[in-house]
């Protein structure tokens, strides 16, 4: 089932919400989850490991995403946008989602590693 759930991530830097003088960098990431399988599944949990440029790690886990536990029938998509705040101008995120089938079987789907980059020149 894992290979039948596709996850695509598009991160972007949000300079209008960042305060580079005080080392606060805000990033948005848009995620599209597509069920390419034959079973209906529900996204139950998420896990993130966020690492900044100094190697500091923040792990986040919890129920659903953005307050929802979406159910995806075959060929359905769910997309959402969320954000992360770092104290360095770049870092990376990686994680996984936990899904459940209608029969109660749970499985994990990896979220591919992606880079958060402010693309700024520090003086």
Q: What is the overall pLDDT average?
A: 94
Number of domains: 1
> Helicity range of the residues?
under 10%
Q: At the third CATH level, what is the topology name? A: Immunoglobulin-like
Q: In DSSP terms, counting alpha (H) and pi (I) runs of 4 or more, how many helices?
A: 0
Helix-strand topology string: EEEEEEEE
Largest sheet: 5 strands, antiparallel
Would you identify the CATH architecture?
Sandwich
Radius of gyration: 16 Å
Overall spatial form: elongated
Low-confidence stretches: none
> What is the level 1 CATH name?
Mainly Beta
Share of residues in strands: over 45%
What kind of oligomer do you see?
single chain
CATH superfamily: ApaG domain
Terminal CA distance: 48 Å
The beta-strand count equals: 8
What is the SS-derived class? mainly beta
Pfam family, one: DUF525
Protein name: Co2+/Mg2+ efflux protein ApaG
Domain ApaG: 1-123
Summarize the structure.
Helices cover 0% and strands 61% of the residues. The chain has no helices and eight strands.
Describe this structure in words.
- It holds the Pfam family DUF525.
- It comes from Vitreoscilla stercoraria.
- This is Co2+/Mg2+ efflux protein ApaG.
- By secondary structure, the chain is mostly beta strands.
- The protein has a single domain, classed as Immunoglobulin-like (Sandwich), CATH 2.60.40.
- It is built from no helices and 8 strands.
Q: What features would you highlight for this structure?
A:
ApaG_domain, single chain, Immunoglobulin-like, ApaG_sf, Co2+/Mg2+ efflux protein ApaG, five-stranded antiparallel sheet, 123 residues, three-stranded antiparallel sheet, elongated, mainly beta
